[in-house]
Design brief:
477 residues; alpha/beta; 15-stranded mixed beta sheet
Protein backbone atom coordinates (compact mmCIF):
# COMPACT_ATOMS: atom_id res chain seq x y z
CA UNK A 1 0.00 0.00 0.00
CA UNK A 2 1.35 3.42 -0.95
CA UNK A 3 1.50 5.56 2.22
CA UNK A 4 2.69 8.69 0.42
CA UNK A 5 -0.73 10.30 0.62
CA UNK A 6 -1.56 9.16 4.18
CA UNK A 7 -0.65 12.50 5.87
CA UNK A 8 -2.83 14.37 3.40
CA UNK A 9 -5.73 11.96 3.97
CA UNK A 10 -5.43 12.37 7.74
CA UNK A 11 -5.38 16.16 7.37
CA UNK A 12 -8.52 16.05 5.23
CA UNK A 13 -10.30 13.79 7.75
CA UNK A 14 -9.33 16.01 10.65
CA UNK A 15 -10.52 19.09 8.74
CA UNK A 16 -13.88 17.43 8.07
CA UNK A 17 -14.25 16.52 11.75
CA UNK A 18 -13.26 20.06 12.74
CA UNK A 19 -15.99 21.50 10.51
CA UNK A 20 -18.45 19.02 12.05
CA UNK A 21 -17.48 20.07 15.58
CA UNK A 22 -17.82 23.78 14.86
CA UNK A 23 -20.82 23.99 12.53
CA UNK A 24 -22.99 20.89 12.99
CA UNK A 25 -22.73 19.99 16.68
CA UNK A 26 -24.19 22.10 19.49
CA UNK A 27 -21.20 21.54 21.74
CA UNK A 28 -20.06 23.33 24.84
CA UNK A 29 -17.46 25.83 23.51
CA UNK A 30 -14.79 24.49 25.87
CA UNK A 31 -15.33 20.94 24.60
CA UNK A 32 -15.30 22.16 20.99
CA UNK A 33 -11.97 23.92 21.48
CA UNK A 34 -10.53 20.85 23.19
CA UNK A 35 -11.50 18.69 20.22
CA UNK A 36 -9.95 21.15 17.77
CA UNK A 37 -6.70 21.03 19.76
CA UNK A 38 -6.72 17.22 19.63
CA UNK A 39 -7.50 17.05 15.91
CA UNK A 40 -4.70 19.38 14.88
CA UNK A 41 -2.06 18.81 17.56
CA UNK A 42 -2.31 15.01 17.35
CA UNK A 43 -3.18 14.53 13.69
CA UNK A 44 -2.19 10.89 13.48
CA UNK A 45 -4.56 9.80 16.26
CA UNK A 46 -6.99 12.71 16.52
CA UNK A 47 -9.53 11.31 14.10
CA UNK A 48 -9.42 7.90 15.84
CA UNK A 49 -10.09 9.54 19.20
CA UNK A 50 -12.93 11.50 17.66
CA UNK A 51 -14.54 8.35 16.27
CA UNK A 52 -14.36 6.72 19.71
CA UNK A 53 -15.28 9.62 21.96
CA UNK A 54 -16.88 12.31 19.79
CA UNK A 55 -19.67 12.55 17.21
CA UNK A 56 -22.30 14.38 19.21
CA UNK A 57 -24.00 15.16 15.90
CA UNK A 58 -25.18 11.59 15.59
CA UNK A 59 -26.48 11.31 19.14
CA UNK A 60 -29.41 13.58 18.36
CA UNK A 61 -30.57 11.15 15.70
CA UNK A 62 -29.74 7.97 17.62
CA UNK A 63 -31.78 8.87 20.67
CA UNK A 64 -34.57 11.04 19.25
CA UNK A 65 -36.94 8.04 19.30
CA UNK A 66 -36.03 7.33 22.92
CA UNK A 67 -36.77 10.90 23.97
CA UNK A 68 -40.16 10.86 22.23
CA UNK A 69 -41.14 7.60 23.92
CA UNK A 70 -40.03 8.90 27.32
CA UNK A 71 -42.13 12.02 26.88
CA UNK A 72 -45.19 10.11 25.70
CA UNK A 73 -45.28 7.84 28.72
CA UNK A 74 -44.32 10.50 31.28
CA UNK A 75 -46.26 13.58 30.22
CA UNK A 76 -49.73 12.84 31.53
CA UNK A 77 -48.51 11.47 34.86
CA UNK A 78 -46.68 14.64 35.81
CA UNK A 79 -48.85 17.45 34.45
CA UNK A 80 -51.31 17.35 37.34
CA UNK A 81 -48.60 17.49 40.00
CA UNK A 82 -46.97 20.38 38.17
CA UNK A 83 -50.28 22.28 38.24
CA UNK A 84 -50.57 21.63 41.98
CA UNK A 85 -47.06 22.95 42.61
CA UNK A 86 -47.42 26.06 40.48
CA UNK A 87 -50.83 26.75 42.00
CA UNK A 88 -49.39 26.34 45.51
CA UNK A 89 -52.04 23.71 46.23
CA UNK A 90 -49.63 20.87 47.02
CA UNK A 91 -49.24 19.98 50.69
CA UNK A 92 -45.91 18.40 51.55
CA UNK A 93 -45.86 15.67 54.15
CA UNK A 94 -42.45 16.66 55.58
CA UNK A 95 -40.89 19.99 56.49
CA UNK A 96 -37.74 19.07 54.54
CA UNK A 97 -39.69 18.69 51.29
CA UNK A 98 -41.35 22.05 51.89
CA UNK A 99 -37.96 23.63 52.58
CA UNK A 100 -36.53 22.28 49.31
CA UNK A 101 -39.67 23.00 47.30
CA UNK A 102 -37.71 24.93 44.66
CA UNK A 103 -35.45 21.95 44.00
CA UNK A 104 -38.46 19.65 43.70
CA UNK A 105 -40.19 22.00 41.24
CA UNK A 106 -37.00 22.36 39.19
CA UNK A 107 -36.62 18.59 38.79
CA UNK A 108 -40.30 18.17 38.03
CA UNK A 109 -40.16 20.80 35.29
CA UNK A 110 -36.84 19.92 33.67
CA UNK A 111 -37.09 16.13 34.04
CA UNK A 112 -40.72 15.25 34.82
CA UNK A 113 -39.38 13.84 38.08
CA UNK A 114 -42.62 13.11 39.90
CA UNK A 115 -42.41 13.57 43.68
CA UNK A 116 -43.39 10.46 45.64
CA UNK A 117 -43.81 10.57 49.39
CA UNK A 118 -44.20 7.98 52.15
CA UNK A 119 -41.24 5.85 50.98
CA UNK A 120 -38.96 3.74 53.12
CA UNK A 121 -35.21 3.89 52.45
CA UNK A 122 -32.50 1.46 53.59
CA UNK A 123 -28.91 2.54 52.93
CA UNK A 124 -26.08 0.20 51.94
CA UNK A 125 -22.43 1.23 51.74
CA UNK A 126 -20.83 -2.24 51.66
CA UNK A 127 -21.22 -4.70 48.85
CA UNK A 128 -21.98 -7.72 51.03
CA UNK A 129 -24.93 -5.90 52.63
CA UNK A 130 -26.29 -4.61 49.34
CA UNK A 131 -26.08 -7.93 47.52
CA UNK A 132 -27.45 -9.89 50.48
CA UNK A 133 -30.50 -7.61 50.28
CA UNK A 134 -30.72 -7.99 46.49
CA UNK A 135 -30.49 -11.81 46.66
CA UNK A 136 -33.14 -11.86 49.40
CA UNK A 137 -35.46 -9.75 47.23
CA UNK A 138 -34.84 -11.99 44.21
CA UNK A 139 -35.53 -15.15 46.21
CA UNK A 140 -38.77 -13.63 47.48
CA UNK A 141 -40.03 -12.57 44.02
CA UNK A 142 -43.44 -13.91 43.07
CA UNK A 143 -44.31 -12.13 39.82
CA UNK A 144 -41.40 -10.34 38.12
CA UNK A 145 -37.76 -9.24 38.44
CA UNK A 146 -36.30 -6.37 36.42
CA UNK A 147 -32.57 -5.59 36.58
CA UNK A 148 -30.69 -2.84 34.72
CA UNK A 149 -26.92 -2.52 35.24
CA UNK A 150 -23.99 -0.96 33.42
CA UNK A 151 -21.71 -3.85 34.39
CA UNK A 152 -22.62 -7.45 35.13
CA UNK A 153 -19.35 -9.32 35.25
CA UNK A 154 -18.89 -12.97 34.34
CA UNK A 155 -17.29 -13.74 37.71
CA UNK A 156 -18.38 -15.42 40.94
CA UNK A 157 -20.92 -12.77 41.94
CA UNK A 158 -22.16 -12.23 38.40
CA UNK A 159 -22.72 -15.96 37.85
CA UNK A 160 -24.49 -16.20 41.23
CA UNK A 161 -26.90 -13.43 40.18
CA UNK A 162 -27.58 -15.13 36.82
CA UNK A 163 -28.16 -18.45 38.59
CA UNK A 164 -30.59 -16.86 41.06
CA UNK A 165 -32.48 -15.19 38.21
CA UNK A 166 -32.61 -18.45 36.25
CA UNK A 167 -34.03 -20.30 39.23
CA UNK A 168 -36.85 -17.77 39.53
CA UNK A 169 -37.48 -17.93 35.78
CA UNK A 170 -37.86 -21.70 36.05
CA UNK A 171 -40.43 -21.11 38.79
CA UNK A 172 -42.47 -19.01 36.35
CA UNK A 173 -41.36 -15.57 37.55
CA UNK A 174 -41.00 -13.05 34.70
CA UNK A 175 -37.33 -12.02 34.50
CA UNK A 176 -35.89 -9.20 32.41
CA UNK A 177 -32.22 -8.25 32.50
CA UNK A 178 -30.88 -5.15 30.74
CA UNK A 179 -27.17 -4.40 30.56
CA UNK A 180 -24.89 -2.05 28.68
CA UNK A 181 -22.99 -3.68 25.84
CA UNK A 182 -19.64 -2.02 26.49
CA UNK A 183 -19.74 -2.00 30.28
CA UNK A 184 -20.68 -5.64 30.63
CA UNK A 185 -18.57 -7.09 27.83
CA UNK A 186 -15.58 -5.08 29.00
CA UNK A 187 -16.07 -6.89 32.31
CA UNK A 188 -15.94 -10.32 30.71
CA UNK A 189 -19.62 -10.69 29.91
CA UNK A 190 -21.03 -12.22 26.73
CA UNK A 191 -24.33 -13.65 25.57
CA UNK A 192 -23.01 -17.12 26.42
CA UNK A 193 -22.62 -16.00 30.04
CA UNK A 194 -26.38 -15.44 30.16
CA UNK A 195 -27.38 -18.73 28.55
CA UNK A 196 -28.57 -20.28 31.83
CA UNK A 197 -31.02 -17.40 32.21
CA UNK A 198 -32.26 -17.38 28.61
CA UNK A 199 -32.58 -21.17 28.56
CA UNK A 200 -34.81 -20.88 31.66
CA UNK A 201 -37.09 -18.39 29.91
CA UNK A 202 -35.59 -15.13 31.13
CA UNK A 203 -35.16 -12.22 28.73
CA UNK A 204 -32.07 -10.06 28.20
CA UNK A 205 -31.65 -6.70 26.52
CA UNK A 206 -28.35 -5.22 25.35
CA UNK A 207 -28.14 -1.43 25.42
CA UNK A 208 -26.36 0.28 22.50
CA UNK A 209 -24.48 -2.72 21.04
CA UNK A 210 -21.98 -0.41 19.33
CA UNK A 211 -19.16 -1.43 21.67
CA UNK A 212 -16.52 0.63 19.88
CA UNK A 213 -18.29 3.81 20.99
CA UNK A 214 -17.24 4.91 24.46
CA UNK A 215 -19.95 7.56 24.75
CA UNK A 216 -23.71 7.17 25.26
CA UNK A 217 -23.51 4.22 27.61
CA UNK A 218 -26.30 3.16 29.96
CA UNK A 219 -24.63 3.75 33.32
CA UNK A 220 -27.80 3.21 35.39
CA UNK A 221 -28.00 0.68 38.25
CA UNK A 222 -31.63 -0.21 38.91
CA UNK A 223 -33.45 -3.28 40.23
CA UNK A 224 -37.21 -3.70 40.68
CA UNK A 225 -38.78 -6.78 42.24
CA UNK A 226 -42.56 -7.36 42.05
CA UNK A 227 -43.07 -3.60 41.72
CA UNK A 228 -42.71 -3.19 45.50
CA UNK A 229 -38.95 -3.25 46.15
CA UNK A 230 -36.38 -1.21 44.25
CA UNK A 231 -32.63 -0.62 44.33
CA UNK A 232 -30.69 2.37 42.98
CA UNK A 233 -27.15 3.57 43.53
CA UNK A 234 -23.54 3.11 42.48
CA UNK A 235 -22.98 -0.66 42.77
CA UNK A 236 -22.61 -2.67 39.59
CA UNK A 237 -22.60 -6.47 39.78
CA UNK A 238 -19.19 -8.09 40.07
CA UNK A 239 -16.57 -9.30 42.54
CA UNK A 240 -14.92 -5.86 42.53
CA UNK A 241 -17.98 -4.46 44.28
CA UNK A 242 -17.48 -6.95 47.11
CA UNK A 243 -13.92 -5.70 47.55
CA UNK A 244 -12.37 -8.72 45.82
CA UNK A 245 -10.80 -6.86 42.89
CA UNK A 246 -7.41 -5.19 42.37
CA UNK A 247 -8.57 -1.95 44.03
CA UNK A 248 -9.24 -3.71 47.32
CA UNK A 249 -12.05 -2.83 49.75
CA UNK A 250 -14.97 -1.11 48.03
CA UNK A 251 -16.93 1.85 49.45
CA UNK A 252 -20.14 2.66 47.57
CA UNK A 253 -23.68 3.81 48.32
CA UNK A 254 -27.06 2.39 47.30
CA UNK A 255 -30.66 2.76 48.39
CA UNK A 256 -33.19 -0.02 48.81
CA UNK A 257 -36.59 1.65 48.40
CA UNK A 258 -40.13 0.54 49.15
CA UNK A 259 -43.04 2.83 48.37
CA UNK A 260 -44.32 4.77 45.37
CA UNK A 261 -40.79 5.68 44.23
CA UNK A 262 -40.46 2.05 43.12
CA UNK A 263 -43.13 2.75 40.50
CA UNK A 264 -40.87 5.44 39.03
CA UNK A 265 -37.94 3.01 38.97
CA UNK A 266 -40.23 0.52 37.24
CA UNK A 267 -41.23 3.11 34.65
CA UNK A 268 -37.59 4.05 34.09
CA UNK A 269 -36.76 0.40 33.47
CA UNK A 270 -39.73 -0.01 31.08
CA UNK A 271 -38.71 3.00 29.01
CA UNK A 272 -35.14 1.73 28.67
CA UNK A 273 -36.34 -1.82 27.97
CA UNK A 274 -38.71 -0.54 25.30
CA UNK A 275 -35.94 1.42 23.61
CA UNK A 276 -33.68 -1.65 23.49
CA UNK A 277 -36.19 -4.42 22.68
CA UNK A 278 -39.20 -2.53 21.24
CA UNK A 279 -41.30 -4.26 23.91
CA UNK A 280 -43.26 -2.18 26.42
CA UNK A 281 -44.58 -4.41 29.22
CA UNK A 282 -47.48 -2.04 29.93
CA UNK A 283 -49.12 -0.35 32.91
CA UNK A 284 -50.85 -3.44 34.33
CA UNK A 285 -51.53 -3.36 38.10
CA UNK A 286 -49.18 -6.32 38.60
CA UNK A 287 -46.29 -4.05 37.62
CA UNK A 288 -47.51 -1.06 39.65
CA UNK A 289 -49.18 -2.45 42.81
CA UNK A 290 -50.39 -0.17 45.59
CA UNK A 291 -47.35 0.15 47.89
CA UNK A 292 -49.22 1.43 50.92
CA UNK A 293 -47.28 3.75 53.26
CA UNK A 294 -44.09 1.93 54.28
CA UNK A 295 -42.23 5.10 55.28
CA UNK A 296 -42.07 8.90 55.31
CA UNK A 297 -39.29 9.80 52.84
CA UNK A 298 -40.10 12.01 49.83
CA UNK A 299 -38.14 10.91 46.73
CA UNK A 300 -37.79 11.99 43.10
CA UNK A 301 -36.23 9.60 40.57
CA UNK A 302 -34.24 11.81 38.19
CA UNK A 303 -32.90 10.55 34.87
CA UNK A 304 -30.14 12.07 32.76
CA UNK A 305 -28.70 11.29 29.37
CA UNK A 306 -27.84 12.50 25.88
CA UNK A 307 -31.52 12.28 24.94
CA UNK A 308 -32.51 15.08 27.33
CA UNK A 309 -32.43 18.78 26.54
CA UNK A 310 -31.13 19.81 29.96
CA UNK A 311 -28.67 18.20 32.37
CA UNK A 312 -31.24 17.50 35.07
CA UNK A 313 -29.00 15.64 37.53
CA UNK A 314 -26.26 18.27 37.31
CA UNK A 315 -28.82 21.04 37.69
CA UNK A 316 -30.27 19.22 40.69
CA UNK A 317 -26.80 19.08 42.23
CA UNK A 318 -26.32 22.81 41.65
CA UNK A 319 -29.72 23.68 43.09
CA UNK A 320 -28.99 21.67 46.22
CA UNK A 321 -25.63 23.43 46.63
CA UNK A 322 -27.23 26.84 46.18
CA UNK A 323 -29.87 25.93 48.78
CA UNK A 324 -27.31 24.97 51.42
CA UNK A 325 -27.13 27.05 54.57
CA UNK A 326 -24.82 24.94 56.71
CA UNK A 327 -23.09 22.07 54.92
CA UNK A 328 -22.50 20.28 51.62
CA UNK A 329 -20.89 16.83 51.69
CA UNK A 330 -19.97 15.15 48.39
CA UNK A 331 -18.53 11.73 47.66
CA UNK A 332 -17.48 10.86 44.12
CA UNK A 333 -14.81 8.76 42.40
CA UNK A 334 -14.53 11.27 39.55
CA UNK A 335 -14.70 15.05 39.95
CA UNK A 336 -14.42 16.84 36.60
CA UNK A 337 -17.07 19.56 36.83
CA UNK A 338 -17.83 22.43 34.51
CA UNK A 339 -17.75 26.07 35.58
CA UNK A 340 -21.37 26.08 36.74
CA UNK A 341 -20.64 23.38 39.33
CA UNK A 342 -17.30 24.79 40.48
CA UNK A 343 -18.81 28.28 40.77
CA UNK A 344 -21.67 26.93 42.90
CA UNK A 345 -19.27 25.13 45.24
CA UNK A 346 -16.89 28.09 45.44
CA UNK A 347 -19.69 30.55 46.21
CA UNK A 348 -21.15 28.25 48.85
CA UNK A 349 -17.78 27.93 50.59
CA UNK A 350 -17.09 31.67 50.40
CA UNK A 351 -20.54 32.25 51.91
CA UNK A 352 -19.61 30.26 54.99
CA UNK A 353 -21.10 26.89 54.06
CA UNK A 354 -19.00 23.90 55.15
CA UNK A 355 -18.27 22.31 51.75
CA UNK A 356 -16.43 18.99 51.78
CA UNK A 357 -15.51 16.71 48.89
CA UNK A 358 -14.25 13.15 49.29
CA UNK A 359 -12.46 11.35 46.42
CA UNK A 360 -10.49 8.07 46.20
CA UNK A 361 -6.82 7.86 47.17
CA UNK A 362 -6.11 5.59 44.21
CA UNK A 363 -7.13 5.71 40.55
CA UNK A 364 -9.06 3.13 38.59
CA UNK A 365 -8.62 5.47 35.60
CA UNK A 366 -5.36 7.42 36.04
CA UNK A 367 -6.24 10.10 33.45
CA UNK A 368 -9.50 10.87 35.27
CA UNK A 369 -7.84 10.71 38.69
CA UNK A 370 -5.24 13.35 37.93
CA UNK A 371 -7.86 15.60 36.37
CA UNK A 372 -10.00 15.11 39.48
CA UNK A 373 -7.13 16.15 41.72
CA UNK A 374 -6.57 19.32 39.70
CA UNK A 375 -10.22 20.40 39.88
CA UNK A 376 -10.35 19.72 43.62
CA UNK A 377 -7.19 21.78 44.01
CA UNK A 378 -8.84 24.77 42.33
CA UNK A 379 -11.43 24.97 45.12
CA UNK A 380 -9.17 24.77 48.16
CA UNK A 381 -8.35 28.48 48.37
CA UNK A 382 -12.09 29.28 48.44
CA UNK A 383 -12.45 27.25 51.64
CA UNK A 384 -13.66 23.95 50.20
CA UNK A 385 -12.18 21.06 52.17
CA UNK A 386 -11.13 17.94 50.27
CA UNK A 387 -10.17 14.45 51.39
CA UNK A 388 -8.81 11.25 49.89
CA UNK A 389 -10.45 8.04 51.09
CA UNK A 390 -7.60 5.73 52.15
CA UNK A 391 -9.41 2.51 53.14
CA UNK A 392 -9.98 1.17 49.62
CA UNK A 393 -11.72 2.53 46.56
CA UNK A 394 -14.46 5.14 46.92
CA UNK A 395 -17.15 4.66 44.24
CA UNK A 396 -20.13 6.38 45.93
CA UNK A 397 -21.95 9.17 44.07
CA UNK A 398 -23.66 11.18 46.79
CA UNK A 399 -24.44 14.67 48.00
CA UNK A 400 -25.99 15.63 51.35
CA UNK A 401 -27.05 19.22 52.06
CA UNK A 402 -27.64 20.51 55.60
CA UNK A 403 -28.28 16.90 56.66
CA UNK A 404 -31.78 17.20 55.21
CA UNK A 405 -31.71 16.57 51.46
CA UNK A 406 -29.47 15.08 48.85
CA UNK A 407 -28.99 12.53 46.10
CA UNK A 408 -27.74 8.96 45.69
CA UNK A 409 -27.41 7.28 42.32
CA UNK A 410 -25.21 6.42 39.37
CA UNK A 411 -24.14 9.91 38.24
CA UNK A 412 -20.56 10.96 38.92
CA UNK A 413 -19.54 14.60 39.15
CA UNK A 414 -18.05 14.73 35.68
CA UNK A 415 -18.86 15.63 32.08
CA UNK A 416 -19.49 12.00 31.13
CA UNK A 417 -22.31 11.61 33.65
CA UNK A 418 -23.67 15.10 33.05
CA UNK A 419 -23.81 14.96 29.24
CA UNK A 420 -22.81 11.64 27.71
CA UNK A 421 -24.14 8.68 29.71
CA UNK A 422 -27.61 7.60 30.77
CA UNK A 423 -27.89 7.98 34.54
CA UNK A 424 -30.49 7.66 37.31
CA UNK A 425 -30.43 9.21 40.78
CA UNK A 426 -32.78 9.30 43.75
CA UNK A 427 -33.17 12.82 45.19
CA UNK A 428 -34.48 12.68 48.77
CA UNK A 429 -35.84 15.22 51.25
CA UNK A 430 -35.70 13.64 54.71
CA UNK A 431 -33.62 14.57 57.77
CA UNK A 432 -33.45 10.96 58.94
CA UNK A 433 -31.91 9.75 55.66
CA UNK A 434 -29.71 12.85 55.45
CA UNK A 435 -28.45 12.37 59.01
CA UNK A 436 -27.63 8.71 58.30
CA UNK A 437 -25.62 9.60 55.20
CA UNK A 438 -23.92 12.49 57.03
CA UNK A 439 -22.94 10.12 59.86
CA UNK A 440 -21.41 7.69 57.39
CA UNK A 441 -19.50 10.56 55.76
CA UNK A 442 -18.10 11.53 59.18
CA UNK A 443 -17.07 7.93 59.85
CA UNK A 444 -15.31 7.82 56.49
CA UNK A 445 -13.29 10.90 57.49
CA UNK A 446 -11.55 8.72 60.09
CA UNK A 447 -9.85 6.84 57.24
CA UNK A 448 -9.19 9.88 55.06
CA UNK A 449 -6.29 12.25 54.48
CA UNK A 450 -7.15 15.91 54.05
CA UNK A 451 -5.79 17.69 50.98
CA UNK A 452 -4.87 21.00 52.59
CA UNK A 453 -3.87 24.00 50.43
CA UNK A 454 -0.33 23.67 51.76
CA UNK A 455 -0.15 19.97 50.96
CA UNK A 456 -1.57 20.50 47.51
CA UNK A 457 0.92 23.26 46.67
CA UNK A 458 3.76 20.97 47.81
CA UNK A 459 2.95 18.24 45.28
CA UNK A 460 5.76 17.15 42.99
CA UNK A 461 6.48 18.62 39.58
CA UNK A 462 5.66 15.27 37.97
CA UNK A 463 2.19 15.28 39.54
CA UNK A 464 1.67 18.82 38.28
CA UNK A 465 2.55 17.69 34.75
CA UNK A 466 0.11 14.77 34.92
CA UNK A 467 -2.62 17.07 36.23
CA UNK A 468 -2.06 19.61 33.45
CA UNK A 469 -2.14 17.02 30.67
CA UNK A 470 -5.20 15.26 32.09
CA UNK A 471 -7.03 18.53 32.64
CA UNK A 472 -6.36 19.67 29.08
CA UNK A 473 -8.32 16.75 27.65
CA UNK A 474 -11.00 16.56 30.38
CA UNK A 475 -13.66 18.54 28.41
CA UNK A 476 -13.64 16.03 25.55
CA UNK A 477 -16.99 14.50 24.81
Amino acid sequence: MNLEFLPAIILILNSIFAVTVVFFERRNPTAALAWLVVLFSLPSVGFVLYLLFGQNYTRQRMFVIKEKEDRRFLREAFEEQHREFTGRRYRFTTSEAAEFRDTIVLLLRNNRAFLTEENRVDIYTRGDEKFDALFAAIRGARDHIHLEYFILNNDELGRAVIHALAEKAREGVEVRLLFDAMGTRAGGGSRKAFSELTDAGGKIGVFFPSVYRVNYRNHRKIAVIDGVTGFIGGFNIGDDYLGKGPLGPWRDTAFQVTGKAVQLLQLRFFLDWHYVTDEYPGLAPRYFPDPGTPGTTPIQIVSGGPDTRWNAIKEGYIKLINSARESVSIQTPYFIPDESVTDALRLAALSGVDVRIMIPCKPDHPFVYWATLSFVGDLLDAGVRAYTYDAGFLHAKTIVVDGKAGSVGSANWDVRSFRLNFEANAFFYDAAVGADLARRFEEDLDVCTEITPERYRARSRWIRVKESISRLFSPLG
